[in-house]
Write a structure and sequence with these properties.
By secondary structure, the protein is of the alpha+beta class. The chain folds into three domains: 113 residues, Mannose-Binding Protein A, Chain A (Roll); 119 residues, no CATH class; 92 residues, Mannose-Binding Protein A, Chain A, CATH 3.10.100. The chain is 18% helix and 29% strand. Strands 4, 5, 6, 7, 8, 9 and 10 form a seven-stranded mixed β-sheet that branches. Strands 11-3-12-13 form a four-stranded antiparallel β-sheet, covered by helices on one side. A four-stranded antiparallel β-sheet has the order 16-15-17-18, covered by helices on one side. The protein starts with 8 loop residues before the first strand and ends in a 5-residue tail after the last strand.
Length: 351
């Protein structure tokens, strides 16, 4: 069970058999939408399914019929920026439909087939958020199997410009006589029903996304570790909905006005205690019209500390390093663009 503070959304398993569109309509009427999965934490929660014979269920991922492929980083929370890339000359060239990426010894990027059908399998580089950052894995596998290995043994495939420009990574690559290595960059046409832009994917290891997947929808298979597969959207299956507890209020208010509005109409201003919650909230704030949104974070002059109004300890932090001093009448706000960091703002400002 999840409280409001420790869990921003709840999953609901519906044992009725419906096609994907009917399941989507049901979830939107009864809850918020078909299930969105933002990372492995969500995936593990989904696997805690209720007793019964439900082995597979629709989730909210579907193929967009216009076929517009978008690049994503494998590591949740790292966003791909078209203006900040390091492609090799004439790359990506998309020969034979190439939806995954690798680097050469100069750390230049190139696209490649994900399933190894038209290209050789490769070594790959994992990123670890808790120990030595980068690990070159000398196994020749497909891109999907490389991603699976990194998530099981480390954190994920190396992802994002910051990681790929790290000096430690450069030293590892230059110390080895290896020309090509998979990185955590891929592109696809899949979209979430609730229009969120989470890049997390948990495909069956034999999945081939380089075939025509138009009018296909995604289901999770519980006895396969929750891994995902596809079927025509007209197929009949049980499904998983989610109920959202994070609500973006599109009205400009001072911090105190926002506080009382939330307490009068909902529960409270939002509290963020870990990276998973940060990612969920930052996905919501992208839809705000102001440069910042208020959080339930407040500065106490008397105690000389920042605190959550929910009484949660400020353990996880995501402050911008702008050198601004703590002052009375200040509260915390998240930027709606950029890296979605936290800023110290005067209470009288309206967001």
């Amino acid at each position: 069970q999840c409280s409001f503070i420790t869990c921003f959304y709840e999953y609901h398993y519906v044992g009725e058999n419906k096609n994907w569109s009917e399941a989507q309509q049901y979830c939107r009427e009864k809850y918020t939408d078909l299930a969105t999965v933002s990372n492995m934490t969500d995936m593990k929660r989904i696997l805690n399914k209720p007793a019964g014979n439900m082995n597979e269920a629709w989730i909210g991922l579907y193929d967009q019929t216009d076929g517009n492929r978008m690049w994503h980083w494998s590591l949740p929370g790292v966003e791909f920026n078209e203006s900040q890339t390091n492609w090799n000359t004439k790359e990506p060239n998309d020969v034979n439909t190439e939806n995954c990426a690798f680097i050469n010894k100069e750390l230049k990027w190139a696209d490649i087939s994900c399933d190894g059908a038209n290209e050789p399998n490769m070594y790959f580089i994992c990123y670890n958020s808790t120990s030595e950052k980068f690990h070159l894995i000398k196994k020749t596998v497909t891109w999907l199997k490389a991603q699976s290995y990194c998530r099981e043994h480390h954190t994920d495939l190396v992802s994002g410009l910051n990681q790929l420009q790290d000096e430690q990574l450069s030293k590892i690559v230059n110390s080895e006589n290896i020309n090509f290595m998979f990185i955590g960059l891929f592109r696809d046409t899949w979209r979430w029903s609730d229009e969120s832009r989470f890049s997390f994917r948990h495909w069956n290891l034999d999945f081939n996304d380089e075939e025509d997947t138009t009018d296909q929808c995604v289901f999770t298979v519980f006895n396969d570790g929750g891994r995902w597969n596809i079927n025509t959207c007209a197929s009949i299956k049980p499904f998983i909905c989610y109920d959202d507890k994070v609500i973006l209020i599109k009205e400009n208010k001072t911090w105190e006005e926002a506080l009382y509005y939330c307490r009068d109409h909902y529960h409270d201003l939002v509290t963020i205690t870990n990276l998973d919650e940060q990612r969920w909230v930052q996905e919501k704030v992208k839809n705000a019209s102001t440069p910042f949104v208020w959080m339930g974070l407040r500065y106490s002059c008397a105690l000389d500390l920042w605190f959550w109004i929910s009484d949660e300890v400020v353990s996880y932090e995501n402050w911008v390093s702008d050198g601004q001093m703590d002052n009375c009448d200040m509260s915390g706000a998240m930027e709606t663009g950029g890296q979605h960091q936290w800023f110290k703002k005067t209470d009288a400002e309206e967001f």
